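Hi Q.,

Before the meeting this afternoon, I wanted you to have the 2-amino-3-ketobutyric acid prediction in hand. No need to reply - just skim if you have a minute. The sequence and ligand are here:
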Amino acid sequence: MTTLPTVFITGASSGIGATYAERFARRGHNLIIVARDKSRLDALALRLHAEHQVSVEVLQADLTNTAELPALEARLRDDADIGILINNAGMAQSGDFLAQSAEAIERQITLNTTALTRLAAAIAPRLAQSGTGAIVNIGSVVGFAPEFGMSIYGATKAFVLFLSQGLSLELSPKGVYVQAVLPAATRTEIWQRAGIDVNTLPEVMEVGELVDAALVGFDRREPVTIPPLHVAERWDALDGARQALMSDIRQAHAAERYQQQH
Ligand SMILES: NC(=O)C1=CN([C@@H]2O[C@H](COP(=O)(O)OP(=O)(O)OC[C@H]3O[C@@H](n4cnc5c(N)ncnc54)[C@H](OP(=O)(O)O)[C@@H]3O)[C@@H](O)[C@H]2O)C=CC1
Ligand SMILES: CC(=O)[C@H](N)C(=O)O
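Predicted structure with the ligand bound:
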């Protein structure tokens, strides 16, 4: 009998991360769940263990505190049972760029990009060595849309997509699956935490539907999964246009429109 890999999930105390934890427990995976709120993690661990007979270990950590990252990195690097990383913890901030404090900007970038990247970097060599495993990074459709007015949040999520595509190119030949999941508005606490009333939003997906759809993409080994996108060809066209740029942008001379007029 093959043993299922342990799933390491950040931001598992609520919302999308807690739902991933429930879904993977249902599939029979042991879990390591990470967030700041230990009492919520403990309650989830007890429930999932009772309902699904899996082992659930709780790791309390503040991922914005880079001093807390080495312990998590060491665990990902050294624990051969961990075969799937769900890089989910994230935060959003509402409000204009002009109104953001330096501390708030740093916190958001550290959580959404630095911690995510460092955790992926910690597990990737071991997965590549074993030729198996998966890294799932939770981005957002906001990463496509500066028009949504969440410039820093969107920029962090554009980073997540770029990083995931790059890692997929590097790691998939070595047997490691990398998935970027890009949800749109989903009913979780992130909205309240960002000072936005989710009930004022026009279209909101329920979190169970979002995670189940993301797992369909996971099982198909899709590199990029966008659950709310009904017309899949739109993504193919966007990514195709990006790839078509590549031959055009490698040029030794500036385009004619930038040549100095003498
Ligand atoms: N809901 C939505 O509309 C969308 C969400 N996303 C993304 O989904 C991901 C999950 O968010 P979602 O479930 O919606 O939101 P929630 O606010 O419900 O969950 C966020 C999770 O991250 C954890 N977290 C927050 N800050 C830290 C920190 N400093 N250190 C460790 N853990 C932390 C929280 O736990 P704790 O407070 O206990 O630390 C919580 O478990 C995020 O990356 C978000 O950007 C993407 C698109 C849409
Ligand atoms: C607060 C948000 O913008 C949300 N998390 C999203 O990514 O759509």
